[in-house]
Design goal:
alpha+beta; single chain; four-stranded antiparallel β-sheet; 33% helix; six-stranded mixed β-sheet
Length: 275
C-alpha cells in the first residue's frame, strides 16, 4: 500500500471525502467511459462530464469516504499512479482560501481573521469552518475552494480553525454595475416590470434550456453559468417562479446532472450575485 492510499484511508474514517490526483494535480477518469476524457468532461478532468456512469465518477464529485471504493478494483490501480491526495472541502463544511504567492499571504495576514494554515508549494491554505461557493481569482493569487471543487491534502496544518468570516464570503460577491440613467420602460403612472412580459421571459428561459441541452462538454460549468445568467436578468424582480426553475433543472438533468447538483448550482449562482 503506497503512502497516498494510506493517507486517504486515514482521512476517510474521519469523514473527509478524498480522491487520487495524477501528475499535474488533475483527477483520474475513474471508469472506462471517462478514460482519456471520452465522456466529454473538460480536458483536465476537473469538471465531471456527461458520462453514463451511475454518478459523476471523477473530479470533486468522485470524492468518497468509502474504504471499499478507495481500495476497490477501479481505484486500487489509480493509487499506484497517484501523485497526490485531494479532498472536497465543501463536503465536510470547510472553505479553503488558497493563497498562491507571498503577496497573497501578506494580504491575508493583514485582512483575514487568523485560522488554521497549511503551507503549499508557493503559498498557504487558510482553512475556515463553514462552506460557501467556490470562485477562482477573487483577487490576485487568491482562490476560494469549498463546494463543487477539490483541494490537495497537504497535511493537517497548524493553528485553530475559526468560523468562516463575512470578509471571506464577501470576496465572491461582485460589486453591482453603476446604474445608468434611462428612460424607463415602465409606463408613466405605473406598470409591470418588463420581465413579466410573457414573450420576454419565455424567450429567456427557452434560450437557457437550449444552452444547457446543447452542451457537449463542461456540463457542470455550463449549467452554473446559465443559471447565473438567468438569475442576473430575472432574479431580482420576482419574475421567476418555481415552474421556470423546474424547467431549467429538468434540462440540466437530461445532461446527467443530479437534483443535488442542480440545487447547488442554483444556490451558488444566487450567492455569487449577492441574492
Amino acid at each position: 500500500m503506497n503512502a497516498h492510499l494510506r493517507t486517504a484511508l486515514t482521512l476517510a474514517p474521519r469523514g473527509v471525502p478524498v480522491l487520487p490526483l495524477r501528475v499535474g494535480k488533475v483527477p483520474f477518469g475513474n471508469c472506462p467511459a471517462c478514460r482519456n476524457n471520452a465522456c466529454g468532461g473538460r480536458p483536465n478532468m476537473k469538471t465531471p462530464g456527461p458520462c453514463e456512469c451511475p454518478r459523476p465518477c471523477h473530479a470533486w464529485a468522485a470524492a468518497t469516504t468509502d474504504p471499499a471504493t478507495l481500495t476497490g478494483p477501479v481505484w486500487a490501480p489509480l493509487w499506484e499512479q497517484a501523485a497526490a491526495v485531494a479532498y472536497h472541502p465543501g463536503g465536510i463544511g470547510l472553505t479553503v482560501v488558497d493563497l498562491d504567492h507571498a503577496a497573497a499571504v501578506a494580504w491575508a495576514r493583514r485582512t483575514l481573521p487568523t485560522t488554521r494554515t497549511v503551507p503549499t508549494t508557493r503559498g498557504e491554505h487558510w482553512i475556515y469552518r463553514g462552506a460557501m461557493s467556490s470562485v477562482n481569482a477573487v483577487r490576485d493569487g487568491v482562490d476560494i475552494k469549498s463546494t463543487m471543487v477539490y483541494a490537495r491534502w497537504l497535511g493537517p496544518g497548524t493553528g485553530t480553525m475559526t468560523a468562516l468570516p463575512d470578509v471571506v464570503r464577501a470576496l465572491i460577491v461582485k460589486k453591482p454595475s453603476p446604474v445608468r440613467p434611462t428612460t424607463a420602460h415602465v409606463p408613466v403612472g405605473g406598470g409591470e416590470c418588463r420581465h413579466r412580459t410573457p414573450a420576454y421571459l419565455e424567450r429567456g428561459i427557452a434560450m437557457a434550456e437550449q444552452r444547457i441541452t446543447g452542451a457537449s462538454s463542461a456540463v457542470h460549468a455550463t449549467v452554473y453559468r446559465t443559471f447565473l445568467a438567468v438569475l442576473s436578468v430575472h432574479g431580482r424582480c420576482g419574475c421567476l417562479t418555481d415552474v421556470h426553475a423546474a424547467r431549467l433543472f429538468a434540462a440540466a438533468q437530461t445532461k446527467g446532472e443530479s437534483p443535488r447538483h442542480c440545487a447547488d448550482a442554483w444556490s451558488n449562482a444566487r450567492t455569487a450575485l449577492g441574492m
